[in-house]
Design brief:
Elements lengths: L6 E4 L5 H12 L3 E5 L4 H15 L3 E4 L6 H14 L5 E4 L14 H29 L2 E6 L12 H20 L5 E8 L5 H14 L3 H9 L11 H11 L11 E4 L7
Parallel strand pairs: 1-2, 1-4, 2-3, 4-5, 5-6, 6-7
The chain binds nicotinamide-adenine-dinucleotide.
Length: 261
């Protein structure tokens, strides 16, 4: 239980990859603050299971990642009720697929706010607390789309490239403070986010569901396998170890060879 005594805030952790991070941290004894949207009863069940797994408490905070004030309040709440935060994971994200000429401006604004700007507000609020503690781990879920583009994903690709740049910058600013700042770039992980983009991709590219699965999603990955949320969470857990203290400013691919091609 190498994270006993530490606290972690994971944005967008009511589902998918974020929930896997929260489970991994709780399994090593960290107290966790989960965040995101969803059915209240389902969220409460996850929160209770995390509290039982960690033995150190788990809280849910409904902060909307489009609201700088709610993000700052969530970090203050974590500090007051769980301590730290020692670990933050900027993970909340949404997707929208459309050619640029039809891309709705409100979807662009939402993706940039949730997938990129929220990480700025999270880091801005947390770095002073981590500097005071002389220890911290900042992890962001970027994407293979932080390194390579795909048609129809203007906002998402822009946000993820930005997240990789933000990661490098804050890593340099905190390099002598006991804080590491990294992003993890998964290929396709089977979660609701991927499932929901299948109809839009079918429309945008004039494809059947099977064609999207095989000719778009799995075609990108030489392994021809989806990455799993647990594999992504295991990498995040490694980044929290003392042995990983020299890994900072990195963009770590976990994409079945996608960006090697
Ligand atoms: P998901 O849809 O399962 O989870 C997204 C989470 O973000 C949910 O908890 C949701 O409630 C939350 N969320 C959405 N809008 C929010 C808001 N305004 N405020 C707070 N929370 C909000 O998706 P996922 O696949 O687990 O995605 C998690 C992250 O991983 C995203 O940043 C995504 O871009 C990234 N990613 C996913 C894949 C993939 O293939 N699934 C690949 C690479 C990167």
């Amino acid at each position: 239980m190498f994270l006993t005594g530490k606290s972690a805030v994971v944005t967008g952790s009511t589902s998918g990859i974020g929930l896997a991070y929260a489970k991994a941290f709780a399994g090593e004894g960290a107290s966790v603050m989960i965040n995101g949207f969803g059915d209240p009863a389902g969220i409460e069940m996850e929160r209770a299971a995390l509290a039982a797994a960690s033995g150190a408490g788990a809280l849910y905070d409904p902060a909307d990642m489009t609201s700088p004030d709610q993000i700052a309040a969530m970090i203050r709440r974590c500090h007051a009720e769980l301590g730290g935060p020692d670990i933050i994971v900027n993970n909340a994200g949404i997707q929208f697929v459309s050619p640029i000429e039809d891309f709705p401006p409100d979807k662009w604004d939402a993706i940039i706010a949730i997938n990129l700007t929220s990480a700025f507000h999270m880091m801005r609020a947390t770095v002073p607390l981590m500097k005071a503690a002389k220890w911290g781990r900042i992890i962001s879920t970027a994407s293979a789309h932080s390194l390579a583009a795909s048609p129809g994903k203007a906002a998402y690709v822009t946000a993820k490239h930005g997240l990789a740049g933000l990661t490098k910058t804050v890593a340099l600013e905190t390099a002598t403070s006991g804080i590491t700042v990294n992003c993890i770039s998964p290929g396709y992980v089977w979660t609701p986010l991927v499932e929901h983009q299948i109809p839009d991709t079918m429309k945008a590219r004039g494809m059947t569901r099977e064609q999207v699965m095989n000719d778009v999603l799995l075609k990108a990955q030489p392994t021809r396998e989806f990455v799993t949320a647990d594999q992504v969470a295991a990498l995040a857990l490694y980044l929290c170890r003392d042995e990983a203290r020299s890994i900072t400013g990195a963009n770590l691919s976990i994409d079945g060879g996608w960006t090697a091609a």
